[in-house]
Write a structure and sequence with these properties.
This protein folds into two domains: 35-226, Rossmann fold (3-Layer(aba) Sandwich); 231-284. By secondary structure, the chain is of the alpha/beta class. 45% of the residues lie in helices and 14% in strands. The chain has a seven-stranded mixed sheet with strand order 2-1-4-5-6-3-7, with helices on both faces.
């Protein structure tokens, strides 16, 4: 190879090394807004926070039928916002019952009472492997951070739950004092039952294998269960929405329509109630603002 060939070759090598090396992490101003979404790089070693100007949330008093869960999570969040010890929280249960809505609403309530007290950072389920990088970015910041993961669960071939366990409580550094982790899931133990049973049947020591699988949920000091509503609670949900958005409909007609709507969807939940109200508002030509 001639000397003239070395120049382009070295330039290509240098370019490849630059692409492989982690970039310089940009400083993030957590006071710029109250909410961010975390975007991880494919290898999980870095990422960036996207500011969210307006959080998609409902007023807390519109979330009917979950008063006990709301009171418990609100008290935990207030303590955390004040810099006091607080627990990670797992909100588990039936789909559409207000789990993620409750987290976003409580974030809004606390920040309304104490502006700037809390930052909400959402991490997507597929980016859980990047948690160490995110926590490194958040550690030691002046603001308290609720780290929020919606619809968290793990399947057979997924081993990222092990890194989540270590990050939440078990690692050398542990969870930063200014960070609390709130997650929602349809599964109480974050894993399907057949996955746990398979471990029980194939492992050399079944009890130890199962213990490893279910111990992830033990990292959450708060377990809040959510279940489908009875008919009276479902009617209370739609009535609260109708009153809040000033929709014009007779109570008997409202109940009849809402009941039919829930039957066609096979469930009574906050999500189903909201979907009915959106349909009602659309028929009346009104905006839900």
């Amino acid at each position: 190879m001639s000397k003239q060939d070395f120049g382009p070759l070295l330039n290509r090598i240098a370019g490849a090394l630059e692409r492989l090396a982690p970039g310089v992490r940009k400083a993030v101003d957590l006071s710029a807004t109250d909410a961010f979404v975390w975007h991880a790089t494919p290898n999980g070693a870095d990422g960036w926070l996207e500011p969210i100007a307006k959080v998609n949330r409902l007023p807390l008093d519109l979330l009917q039928g979950i008063d006990r869960q709301a009171d418990t999570l609100l008290e935990n969040t207030k303590r955390f916002a004040a810099g006091l010890p607080a627990n990670n929280a797992l909100l588990w249960g039936a789909r559409g019952t207000g789990k993620s809505s409750l987290i976003k609403s409580i974030h809004g309530v606390v920040n309304e009472a104490t502006p700037g007290a809390l930052t909400l950072v959402e991490i997507h389920r597929e980016d859980i492997h990047s948690l160490p990088a995110l926590l490194s970015l958040l550690r030691g910041r002046e603001r308290q951070v609720i780290l929020f993961c919606d619809d968290l669960s793990f399947d057979d071939a997924d081993t990222s739950y092990k890194s989540l366990k270590a990050v939440l409580e078990g690692g050398i550094e542990g969870r930063p004092d200014n960070v609390v982790f709130y997650a929602t899931s349809n599964r109480r133990h974050l894993m399907p039952r057949d996955m746990i049973e398979n471990e029980r049947s194939t492992a050399i020591n079944p009890s130890e294998a199962v213990e490893e699988k279910v111990s992830l949920s033990d990292r959450f000091g708060l377990w809040l269960g959510f279940h489908h509503a009875d008919q009276d609670t479902f009617f209370a949900m739609v009535e609260a929405y109708v009153a809040h958005y000033d929709l014009d409909i007779e109570r008997e007609t409202l109940h009849a329509e809402a009941k039919e709507w829930s039957v066609t969807r096979g469930a009574r939940s906050g999500r189903v109630a909201w979907q009915y109200v959106q349909d009602l508002a659309g028929r009346q030509g009104k905006r839900l603002v």
